[in-house]
Amino acid sequence: MVCRSGLDPVDGALRRATPSATDERVRSVLGIVSSRLPPAAFLVGSDVGDGYRGDATDEKGALPPVVLRPATTDELSLILSACNDLRQPLVLQGGRTGLAGGARPMEGELSLSLERMKRLSPVNVDAATIVAEAGVTLQEVQAAANEAGFFFGVDIGARGSCTIGGNVATNAGGIRVLRYGMFRAQVAGVEAVLADGSVLSSLKGLPKDNSGLDLNHLFIGSEGVLGIVSKACLKLWPKPVTEANALCVVPSIDAAQDLLVRLRQSLGSLLSAFEILFPEVYAGIARGGFAAPPLPLPVTGGYYILTEIQGQTGDSDRERFSEALMDALDDGLASDVVVSQSSRDFEGLWRLREASNSFIFSLSNVVGFDVSVPAASMARFLDRAAASVRAIDRHAETYIFGHLGDGNLHYMVRSPEHDALADAVLTAAAEAGGSISAEHGIGLDKKPWLSLVRSPAELAAMRRLKRAFDPHSILNPGRVFDLEPSHAGEKVCP
Amino acid sequence: MVCRSGLDPVDGALRRATPSATDERVRSVLGIVSSRLPPAAFLVGSDVGDGYRGDATDEKGALPPVVLRPATTDELSLILSACNDLRQPLVLQGGRTGLAGGARPMEGELSLSLERMKRLSPVNVDAATIVAEAGVTLQEVQAAANEAGFFFGVDIGARGSCTIGGNVATNAGGIRVLRYGMFRAQVAGVEAVLADGSVLSSLKGLPKDNSGLDLNHLFIGSEGVLGIVSKACLKLWPKPVTEANALCVVPSIDAAQDLLVRLRQSLGSLLSAFEILFPEVYAGIARGGFAAPPLPLPVTGGYYILTEIQGQTGDSDRERFSEALMDALDDGLASDVVVSQSSRDFEGLWRLREASNSFIFSLSNVVGFDVSVPAASMARFLDRAAASVRAIDRHAETYIFGHLGDGNLHYMVRSPEHDALADAVLTAAAEAGGSISAEHGIGLDKKPWLSLVRSPAELAAMRRLKRAFDPHSILNPGRVFDLEPSHAGEKVCP
């Protein structure tokens, strides 16, 4: 049964990579995998590049001795079944663009990368769906939808490298949630593989199906702790006929919220994005040259709103957008507005929004939080968080930007006091009735604060799910929550 | 601790209702409940009305000896904890309007009714949400939304008696799924109580929250087998400025589908309903006088489409609707069209659609199926199902109507051969890549056919969930699936 050809050199490479006697288990996994799957299905020792040590966060983890790289669901199932039998823990890796450390390997883990599962079905025009394997990038799905005359509802900065498996597993959000919803709302069905290798397939993409328990939603946003999303059937939307965006300056966060309410009322479902750059972020982009000069609006000390519409009826949509913005200007909700007049303007304004990431990444010693807060308590949250930050480090610099249309702010602080700041900002978000992780997930890095927003009963329910679906805890162990509630990593809400 | 007052009369009533020695367990449950909760929290013996014997299907179950009726989440938790400790099985009852027998009591079960949990929060205008307890009716939510200037996205015929707990637990659908989605899409969060009495509360209603595993979706559409939905935070939509509907006659099912594609393209998100009455249903309504004469269009032998728009921009929406329908008429997609010109017309056309239910309920010996099928295989499904029905009973009469916009048809057959017909019609739906229960759920009545559309791995995953959340199987036991796969109730796909 077991084909030995190719095993010895692999074994030799592995012995050099993991020479200790405790690695017998790794060698057993590799023995099974190398005897049953082609050589491309695994990387060993020096073939494992440094990129497998983590995600888009600065902190890197252990270099995994082996990267398992299935190309099909059957290969994935075989790998999982072997690892489950041998109790071999795995870190799951997609595009490794996460911001919560979920894909950062811990000592003793092998990497399971979905990077070779790259098949993308043709668009099903009747059903307005497309089926993608886990390793297909978001950009590839967007392009395929576009080519078939459709639109995909989620967009995030990492579109070129993030992958559908990770997008589903982390319930990615991004810039158009207020129109299209989170990634969860784009999913018509998933194929998932459990730790024991069993495959759950639900790719029919029916808009209505109450035939037994829904299993799709178990895996959406699960961060890989319950099973591995190997394929997803994704919903597509009609391609917009009109797209336009605008940059506005508003004097305060209250004015920004008033402008949002106004645009929602006057534009309804035309409104597709409502992003904010706080004054310090816009000034930083200008100062550092992160967007091509001249900037569309001068640096004023105000708050900058990038808003967008997508419509189906052409010029009349564009007119409604301009009118709504001019009314806001007349009524003093905004002090200045520039509306895109060409696709070049349109792209330019979006690049300005994306420049906020480049600006933030250029700074050293920054700790970032991804919070969401109900509109009614936004101002209170910002005041309390600012006061707490000042109390911890009066030299701290705060840079805030993000998706105000969803109440979701990326709250970045430049200061060495990372842990104390996390306690302060995340507690303020929790006390405001908000989320400590609106779209980035919990992974390893936000786990200590999860109990600020989830009750002991909820955490116990998460553990029930983990034990039911991954009883030997081989899938992303220790991510999101620990199996034992008394673990030191779980803080008690102050 | 235990207050004995009131227990003895209760105990006496129960002894009369369930005199056997095996009912010691029921008396123990009632002992705990009657000592800790007010008398309104339970009905015993002759106080238990016949309505508790079932749902909206003809078949009635055992009369439960006790109906447990908590008024608050705390009371519900106490009741569940007691029943779990004593291993007392419960049938869960909301508005008892289901069509799959899920709320039909089996021998030995007590009823747990949510009918006294009736609190409805004020609308949260900032967040566009409302929080309802399980026993609030759908119509009460619709009315509260309307009063606050919002719209609730789901409507079904049972609106006046079905309740939010049941709507969430069965993922109700109805007439506007193509615009607003199923009930699942209306839920911003739930409070659920597990079999052991622990309460999982997620009622913040944040549009973006990836803080740990989502637990809401576990309970949506779970038909009560994993926990009890005690409250739901529901999303509201902007109230439409324009509503209009129209009745069209089309010559064939293919033409009906072409009309749907055409209206989707020309009306986009304006389109809010697309319902069909097959020729035999329209003729039956006319013949039986189930709609007030004169009917808006004569009986022609064609297929009747009731379609609706909801818009935000007034007369221009109405004009687009009329133009799209006139174009369809000009192009021969429809042979006759009548568009509502007043709210009286509008209501009248909807009453005509609802008359299909009255007509069907007036017939004896009818077995009904609630299937959905992908658009591309709809014609094939209808041909195959019709041939199979004829082969089983050449005198069978078939009546079809429903939500063609979602591929969801209510397929009703008048014939004594209920089981053979179920095998035939549900197999045809499954072979067409469809669902054997699009919106009604599985309950007791569709359970034998679940394995036509769900794999052994999926059924095993459902059992894992059941064992994890209700290890003593006290919540709706035997509904949806059996705990043991070899159970005779589970058919093998032919």
Describe the structure in your own words.
Chains A, B: Keywords: FAD, Flavoprotein. Chains A, B: Residues 60-239 form the FAD-binding PCMH-type domain. Chains A, B: This is FAD-binding oxidoreductase. Chains A, B: It comes from Rhizobium straminoryzae. Chains A, B: GO terms for molecular function: catalytic activity; FAD binding. The structure is a homodimer of 494-residue chains. Chain A is α+β, with helices and mostly antiparallel strands and 494 residues long. Chain A folds into 5 domains: 7-113, Uridine Diphospho-n-acetylenolpyruvylglucosamine Reductase, domain 2, CATH 3.30.43; 129-238, 2-Layer Sandwich (Uridine Diphospho-n-acetylenolpyruvylglucosamine Reductase, domain 3), CATH 3.30.465; 242-361, 2-Layer Sandwich (Alpha-Beta Plaits); 366-440, Alpha-Beta Plaits; 443-494, no CATH class. Chain A contains 14 helices and 17 strands. Chain A has helices at residues 7-17, 24-36, 73-86, 138-147, 164-169, 177-180, 216-219, 253-267, 279-288, 315-330, 343-361, 378-392, 418-431, 456-469; strands spanning 42-44, 66-68, 90-93, 110-113, 129-133, 150-151, 187-193, 199-201, 228-235, 237-238, 242-250, 271-277, 303-311, 336-339, 366-372, 397-403, 408-414. In chain A, the strands form 4 sheets. In chain A, strands 14-11-13-12-16-17-15 form a 7-stranded antiparallel sheet, with helices on both faces. In chain A, helix 2 runs antiparallel to helix 3 and helix 12 packs antiparallel against helix 13 (418-431). Chain A starts with 6 loop residues before the first helix and ends in a 25-residue tail after the last helix. At the A-B interface, strand 8 and helix 14 of A face strand 8 and helix 14 of B.
